Amino acid sequence: MQAVVYEQYGPPEVLQMRQVAKPTPKPNEVLIKIYATTVTVGDWRLRKADPFLARFFTGLFKPKNPILGHELAGVIETVGTVVTRYKVGDAVFASTKLDSGTYAEYICLPEDGAMALKPNNLSFEEAATIPVGGLTALHLLREAGIKTGQKVLIYGASGSVGSFAVQLAKHFGTTVTAVCSTTNVALVKSLGADRVIDYKQTDVTQSNEQFDLIFDAVGYLPLAKCKKILKPDGTYASVSWGIALTLNMLGSKMFGGPKVVMGMSVEGTADMVYLKDLAEASRLKGIIDRRYTLAQLPEAHHYVESGRKKGGVVIQIV
Predict the structure, then answer these.
(1) pLDDT tens, residue by residue, 275-311
(2) Does domain 2-130+286-316 have CATH number 3.40.50.150?
(3) CA distance 249 to 266
């Protein structure tokens, strides 16, 4: 099969098209013919080994797994001998979670992984944009204890995680203030935000308003800047991770103050089915910014790394 691989860390040009062996599913796995995948922020960071400490997990001198890509939509071509949840011909969408491998024509995934039948009202490309951002937003909002009636601030509301955070926060019955750039204000309003702030014109951290929950969906709004606008018993959630934030999280548990949550989803099928049901009820949609082919992956990486993308950047494989 065709796949795009990287055999060394570096710029987008390290991504090269190769012929590699088509995988064979284990007894509990399904073989998926991938129709669409995406380029996420995590993909370009892994490609560059940014931060450097990532190398201790992905390979110190060169990548252990040479195929990137973390979400997909496609059709099941083969099922393992003990698989019961899916059958040949099922259209599915999925996240590889901590693994990767979607920059290819085929992939094998366990039937009990982060996978579900594709929403029947979405195209393969639309469905492929949901798993990573949708699961991350859902996980952090739940960890934050989101409740009906809360006032929620979502910073970076036009990105993959942020766009789903806006939609999910509205689904949970909160009042959403979203922050994004000038060019994305209309998009974020269309997602249901009650108010949209253009960060280029207004510094939300200088507001006199306070929020029950502040969700930093891009890692650009540190907790230290939020103290004025976060209620004393509020929650700060971030897609970022690091020593400082970990200490803040531990400190809040030991000494009180605003709750701090971070990290990524470790859930599987149940949350994917939850997102599928919301999509089919027209309560959740994926945003497609740009489309590229598998051969254009270096170009797609350049664009995503620029920080200008909104929603998802799709890679068309079929």
Answers:
(1) 999 999 999 999 999 999 999 999 999 999 999 899 9
(2) no
(3) 19
